[in-house]
Design brief:
The chain is of the alpha/beta class. The chain has helices spanning about 10-20, 40-55, 90-100, 165-170, 170-185; strands at about 1-5, 25-30, 60-70, 110-120, 120-135, 150. About 30% of the residues lie in helices and about 25% in strands. The chain binds inosinic acid.
């Protein structure tokens, strides 16, 4: 079954194909959609709906980001827009600077992902991974804020994990595994 994956993010495309490992064919396609929703869910539905109206076949889109408790839940839906145009090395350095006086027990954070399957109706699946913000950037794998995020129960940052390890525990893995279970349950 062919499904449009509405994203231009090459990292997400690779992760989704590694997570899905099924007969569903996710075909990546880029759409210009303003992410002006107030939640991950609103933004993901908007992207998936736009792609569906354009392509007339079922679509999938996700919206994701990092929430840092000591920063009042930032970056949230603004994760992609934070210090727009700057490299992630600088964005991560800025976050570590903002967190410099935050004690270990207050460094809690999470990645969230909302994946939406749209076939005329939105079907919404959420994934979360809890963890903490590190004291320095570590690791070269993954993307975005992975070098400063330490998953719960782990002593490595997400960027120090192999792609197999990240894609078995990540927020995106949790959301897309639910989405794929839903697809498998459809009578098609
Ligand atoms: P969007 O979902 O395309 O709006 O962008 C989400 C943004 O959140 C990304 O550009 C990254 O900055 C951040 N993000 C989302 N998922 C991850 C992840 O798995 N690792 C690191 N950063 C992520």
């Amino acid at each position: 079954m062919k499904i449009i994956l509405a994203t231009s993010n090459a990292h997400k495309i690779k992760e989704v194909s590694q997570i899905s490992k099924t007969s569903f064919e996710f075909v990546p396609k880029t759409f210009e959609v303003e992410e002006d929703g107030k939640t991950f869910s609103e933004n993901a539905v908007k992207k998936a709906r736009f792609a569906y109206e354009h392509e007339k076949i079922p679509t999938v889109a996700d919206d994701s980001g990092i929430e840092i408790d000591a920063l009042g839940g930032l970056l949230g839906i603004r994760s992609a827009r934070f210090m727009k145009g700057k490299p992630y090395k600088e964005k991560n350095a800025k976050i570590l600077e903002m967190m410099k006086d935050v004690l270990e027990e207050k460094r809690t954070a999470r990645f969230k992902c909302v994946a939406v399957y749209f076939d005329g109706t939105p079907h919404v699946f959420e994934g979360v991974i809890e963890g903490k913000i590190a004291y320095e950037q570590r690791g070269e794998n993954g993307f975005g804020y992975d070098p400063i995020f330490i998953p719960q129960g782990c002593d490595k940052t997400m960027a120090q994990l192999s792609s197999e390890a990240k894609n078995s525990i990540s927020h995106r893995a949790h959301a897309f595994k639910k989405l794929i279970e839903y697809l498998k349950s459809l009578p098609i």
